[in-house]
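S.,

Sequence below, as promised.
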Amino acid sequence: MGEVNKNRLSSIRFLFGGNIVFETKIEVTEIDKEWLQLIIEAKNLGIEKKEILDYLNQKI
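The prediction came back faster than expected:
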């Protein structure tokens, strides 16, 4: 597992219909980066939100 760098915060925006619902800052670990990369990959492949969990389960 990657080490958590407490000073390494990323801003995440949660969108709904193009509008920002809320924005938060989270610590990003290497594992988080892997999950985020898989989600981005799924979105780039045109996978619908409701199908992303199935896609992620296939990848792990």
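The two ends are 15 Å apart (CA to CA).

Coffee later?
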